[in-house]
């Protein structure tokens, strides 16, 4: 939860330092702390305002009293980067302080002795969220003054309001919830999962793959799952389908999942003579499980022979079926090497593939 709360602050380039107030004897921070040069720690206090004061004093080692400081609850893991940016924008526009908040939209009841005593007028009511932003020196003095007056403040804005400061309200996401009860953890988890899916949407990944096999005894080759008559076969542990092997490598590369040899090693007897389309279906399932879909694939066969022009549509149909996409997303073409190299000498054939994936 703390890692999620810190992420939007550490990723904001205008934030130079982040201080985490830890309990004395904290045994978990060292193992779970994010790696960032921005990150500092200090010992917290018995109350919120004590911990905030400790954090401000730590910041004084790196900042001046006039610098802006944002105070955020570690118990609010669903903060969105856009809300941090909006808060900073309010300060840059000249506000003397800014509080992230959400308007109250529910009917509000006041309770006394377990029953409703009245319905409260909700007009003008907002829920104060965090971060809250003020000048470092002013906030430090306001919190110290509240402590001397024995006034317990529930947020930084309350301390500043005692000094006559009127911060602006910056409307933030209502999903910026504070985890207080056990049930709140489940709600926060759902919000974070939804945010991750939104982030994945539109996220692009590119992969490229290459495969080659030498010719050997036989009377056909398999390309894109199509058996094509040829005077020679290929030397391979599986069916030697260079098109599918290159395509699998491209997909695995885009997913950051290594290569085909890692998942289907040629030392495994299960894959001896195997239909490579089984490999492609497995990789396609991995792609979907990771939350990605294929935008397009481009495959080039490098061979003097056999010619594949008459087989390209069937090859594309096979690949599209195994990937669960429309055939028009698969482009297959061929070229020679102008009689140069091992391909030009007719010693083997190769294929290369490039794919573009998009987060679903």
Written description of the protein model:
With 360 residues, this protein is of the alpha+beta class. The chain has two domains: 2-200, Spore Coat Polysaccharide Biosynthesis Protein SpsA, Chain A (Alpha-Beta Complex); 204-359, 60s Ribosomal Protein L30, Chain: A. Helices cover 34% and strands 27% of the residues. It has twelve helices and 15 strands. The strands form five sheets. Strands 12-9-15-13-14 form a five-stranded mixed β-sheet. Strands 3-7-4-8 form a four-stranded mixed β-sheet, sandwiched between helices. Strands 1-2 form a two-stranded parallel ribbon. A hairpin with a 2-residue loop joins β5 (108-112) and β6. The longest helix has 19 residues, at 182-200. It is elongated, with a radius of gyration of 31 Å. It starts with a helix and ends with a strand. The mean pLDDT is 93.
Indicate the CATH topology of the largest domain. Answer: Spore Coat Polysaccharide Biosynthesis Protein SpsA, Chain A
Determine the strand fraction and express it as a percent band: 25-35%
Mean pLDDT: 93
Based on CA atoms alone, the radius of gyration comes out at 31 Å
Total number of domains: 2
Structural class: alpha+beta
**Uncertain residue ranges:** none
Distance between the termini: 25 Å
Count of DSSP strands = 15
Helix content: 25-40%
**Separate helix tally:** 12
Give the spatial strand order of the biggest sheet.
12-9-15-13-14
Net shape: elongated
The arrangement of helices and strands along the chain is HEHEHEHEEEEHHEHEEEEHHHEHEHE
What is the CATH C-level name of the largest domain? Alpha Beta
